Amino acid sequence: MTKKGILLLSGGADSTTLFVHALEKGWTIYPLSVDYGQKHAVELEAAKQIVDYYRMFYYEVKYRNCVKDLKVLNFDLSQIGHSALTDETQEVPNSMKNQIQTVVPFRNTLLATLAAAYGESLELNPITIFMTPVKEDFETYRDCRIPFYHSLTETLRLGSTRETEIEIITPFIGTTKAEIIALGTKYKVPYELTHTCYKGTRPACGKCPACIERLEAFKTNSLKDPLEYEKE
Amino acid sequence: MTKKGILLLSGGADSTTLFVHALEKGWTIYPLSVDYGQKHAVELEAAKQIVDYYRMFYYEVKYRNCVKDLKVLNFDLSQIGHSALTDETQEVPNSMKNQIQTVVPFRNTLLATLAAAYGESLELNPITIFMTPVKEDFETYRDCRIPFYHSLTETLRLGSTRETEIEIITPFIGTTKAEIIALGTKYKVPYELTHTCYKGTRPACGKCPACIERLEAFKTNSLKDPLEYEKE
Question: What is the pTM of this model?
Fold first, then answer.
């Protein structure tokens, strides 16, 4: 039986690596991206390019049929704001110190629930959802911790239209970004297509918490990040 | 201390009664409505009129300050569809038999989560959310049952940006619509301002599951529903 899963693809390095990891493990993937009013909506363009790459240009032809159309949902959380990522009145912080300002209230709850609803519309059962919390997220992002995902899975199971098996798979929840880059490099993930910077600029700013962590992860692997960064 | 709560106000008879009930119990209410792409978006107009009524025209002047501005969020679930209420390719059923078609996948999970996010943006702590599942919802709507709300509360508690007390209050979960109408009549709820019909027509269709249950609730109380209905 084909294993099918919905994967929340942000267009960043972590979820892109998980996407390729799932393909390598034999999953058929329905990629899902959400335009939630993030200032770095340019990441959605990255998600499209990554999906196109694996559908059309991937060296392993056998995987092409395992990547379904990218679904992009518009769900504008800037209507609620209260995060440096969605609120025009707040600036994206320039250091790790203020990372808490980059939390988008209940983002992962909303994203997983949208994925589950999308799964119902596809009439999947079980509904399997791939998400990419990583080890570094643990401290600041409470919705990137194991007990949260256990509870969320139960909530979705109880709240589905009909009795449905629901599973949220988070293989990288205890994995560092450096380990993810190492794995993805093995898989030949096209990191040059991904986007990470919270400011949404290209070249990337190199200073926001997302850029800092990404650069560090490549550095730990003695690899050069293929993305361009702003010069000082 | 002022008791403050966010109340999901659909503009229908049940949530409007809960709104007034909460005011009568001394709560200050932040009403929240969501345009989720429902065919009966006319209910949002009803929600606005109800809020205006209690802010400006209510006979008990002392309650006017207890009703905060109505927040309306746009989160278009017709992008996912798979429900007769949001999907143009599906017709709203004309009997109770096909009520399951009126389920909007994970609607209550999404609405409660949006309410919690709104609560964070208002910097409320605790975040108290009023919702209106009723006894008749139990059979068809799995997201209107007690274990679901327990689990959802825990999920929101674990997924909030900072540690926050979260409470979902559902006083009518074991209450019939007839009992709700009886209570609301005691409170002088202006039911003529509410909207219930799933087809979104005015006069109301009188045949969809929502109309059928509403008419029955008034009939049980030997009351005349002040809304107009289509003639045969």
Answer: 0.96
